[in-house]
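Hi V.,

Quick status before I head out on leave. The structure for the redesign project is tokenized and pasted below; the design run finished overnight.
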């Protein structure tokens, strides 16, 4: 049996800067850095012209004003949209960043990345492939696994496609609740970890995953007490929105 090993820091800022800055923006990642975080989780989706960008929702209306979808919008258009004002007027003018620019920023600032591949429905395979290929290129000069990001996805298809494009980038399979078949599914993709919602995560789940050689990341943990309990249970990493409350 393999001993599970987690490849990055054990506390990760969710969607860039958690709840302290607009999600999935460079301003968010900067906020995390200012608070001592050196690990970030963010979501990556494709525009209509297949540019990977940081985005959680497939449709506009929450972080991007108006109607429409990311998958139907070209990069040159999306690049003009405001991605910060929904959060606070202080962030007016903040843009949707391209994945490529975020990787370069994180590399320059020593920030480890959990890249959640978040395909718009129907774009699973192409999103996994393009994110995989781009990551392979952006990390081509890295030797060993230490600097590699970790891919994760709720989509098995996207993760399988990323694996085919960049087999050397480690992978984690994402769940809300870990199903009975969770270990089997993670193994089929040669994952190193399983990521699960902490609200439904039990101590015995962590033991079972560790026994199977899988590390465990859990999201989105915003209370210090719960973080300590999960650490006692042996969880390998947590992802948090409260980068002010939980020390990196
Ligand atoms: O990767 C952990 C977490 O980000 C998954 O949920 O919806 O916040 O992307 P979501
Ligand atoms: Mg995410």
């Amino acid at each position: 049996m393999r001993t599970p090993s987690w490849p990055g820091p054990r506390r990760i800022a969710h969607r860039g800067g958690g709840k302290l800055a607009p999600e999935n923006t460079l301003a968010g990642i900067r906020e995390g850095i200012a608070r001592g975080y050196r690990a970030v989780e963010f979501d990556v989706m494709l525009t209509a012209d297949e540019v990977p960008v940081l985005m959680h929702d497939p449709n506009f209306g929450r972080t991007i004003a108006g109607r429409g979808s990311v998958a139907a919008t070209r990069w040159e258009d999306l690049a003009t949209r405001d991605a910060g004002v929904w959060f606070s007027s202080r962030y007016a003018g903040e843009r949707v960043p391209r994945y490529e620019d975020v990787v370069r920023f994180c590399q320059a600032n020593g920030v480890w990345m959990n890249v959640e591949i978040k395909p718009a429905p129907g774009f699973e395979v192409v999103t996994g492939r393009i994110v995989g290929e781009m990551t392979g290129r952006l990390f081509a000069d890295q030797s060993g696994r230490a600097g590699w990001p970790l891919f994760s996805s709720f989509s098995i298809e996207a993760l399988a496609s990323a694996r085919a494009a960049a087999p050397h980038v480690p992978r984690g399979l994402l769940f809300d609740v870990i199903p009975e078949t969770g270990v089997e599914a993670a193994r089929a993709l040669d994952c190193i970890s399983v990521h699960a919602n902490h609200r439904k995560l039990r101590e015995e789940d962590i033991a079972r995953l560790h026994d199977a050689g899988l590390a465990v990341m859990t999201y989105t943990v915003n209370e210090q007490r719960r973080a300590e309990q999960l650490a006692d249970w042996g969880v390998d990493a947590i992802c948090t929105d409260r980068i002010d409350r939980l020390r990196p």
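Above is the designed sequence. The chain has eight helices and nine strands.

G. will cover questions while I'm gone.

Best,
W.
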